[in-house]
């Protein structure tokens, strides 16, 4: 897929060693950063709620003839929006905020893994001493190593500005060890149509 190759070619290395925002060395962390980018219309809100959310309705819409012929996945429509200074500045702003938020997620997940390991160690010691374990592991129900950051970007209907925005956002130079998912929730939902069809989800990355 063209998108896959472009992302991989433009990927950047994660800094080594990895140092968290608290100044602690995270190079030995086993966390797997996962970035999920959603485009959607103004209503209904995303569920679950995103960690970061951006309203893009203040960005000028492409001309009506372009909107009628293309949605935000179109290179032509995206190139038009990239000519809007406000659109590009917002991309830069959101990229910076995502990097900061993901760093915090990685630290949070690493600390939770460490705490869970301490609990398991304590449980082993308690069982050796004939004591009851006192808690039930949830490891089979979720992946404790995955640091998931959800980012929601909305415009009026979720067809053009928000779609183009997350498409371009996905093409930014994210660290190579990140897994990135792209979901266009309302791409096939038309005005006045109550039936909602989720757009195709793309996934790439992950070293």
A few lines on this structure:
With 207 residues, the chain is an alpha/beta fold. It is built from 5 helices and 5 strands.
SSE arrangement:
Blueprint: H1 2-9, E1 32-40, E2 52-55, H2 64-69, H3 75-82, H4 85-128, E3 146-154, H5 161-170, E4 179-184, E5 201-205
Parallel strand pairs: 1-3, 1-4, 2-3
Antiparallel strand pairs: 4-5
Structure report:
The protein has 207 residues and is α/β, with parallel strands linked by helices. It has one domain (2-16, 34-128, 143-192). Helices cover 37% and strands 16% of the residues. It contains 5 helices and 5 strands. It has helices at 2-9, 64-69, 75-82, 85-128, 161-170; strands at 32-40, 52-55, 146-154, 179-184, 201-205. The protein has a 5-stranded mixed beta sheet with strand order 2-3-1-4-5. It is elongated, with a radius of gyration of 20 Å. The model is unreliable at 4-18, 24-28, 130-141 and 194-198 (pLDDT under 50).
